[in-house]
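User: Can you recover a sequence for this backbone? Please restate the input before giving your answer.

Assistant: Of course. Working from this structure:
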């Protein structure tokens, strides 16, 4: 597992390599808007995704920059 603080946001990465293929969970929390497809492409370029599932959660709407 790994975590990183990025300004007012954070990343968390968890990898289970006991299974084949390995399973990875990546969490990205950001106060700024970002393009999910760019994040997924970067992960694919680095790790080679076989399949993925993603979920975008909206936090408190009063804190959101997506207005």
């Amino acid at each position: 597992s790994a975590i990183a603080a990025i300004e007012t946001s954070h990343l968390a990465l968890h990898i289970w390599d006991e299974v084949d293929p390995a399973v990875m969970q990546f969490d990205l929390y950001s106060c700024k808007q970002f393009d999910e497809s760019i994040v997924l492409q970067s992960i694919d370029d680095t790790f080679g995704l076989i399949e993925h599932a993603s979920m975008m959660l909206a936090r408190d709407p009063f804190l959101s920059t997506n207005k």
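That completes the design. The helical segments are 36-47.
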